[in-house]
Amino acid sequence: MTGELALRAVPEVDMALHRSRIEEAERRMRRSGWRRHLPQRGHLVLMPLSIIMVLPFVWMVLTSFMTSSEINRIPPTILPHHLYTGGYSTVLASSDFPYWFLNSLIVSGAAVLAQLVLCSLAGYAFARIQFRGSSVMLILLLATALIPFQLTVIPTFLIFHDLGLINTLGALIVPQLTSALGIYLMYSFFQSFPRELEEAGRIDGCNRLQVFWKIVLPLARPALAALGIITFIYAWNDLFWPLIAITSSHTFTVQVGLTTFQGEHVTEWSAVMAGTVLTTAPVLLVFLVGQRRFVQAITGAVKG
Question: Is a pLDDT exceeding 70 seen at residue 304?
Answer without folding.
Answer: no
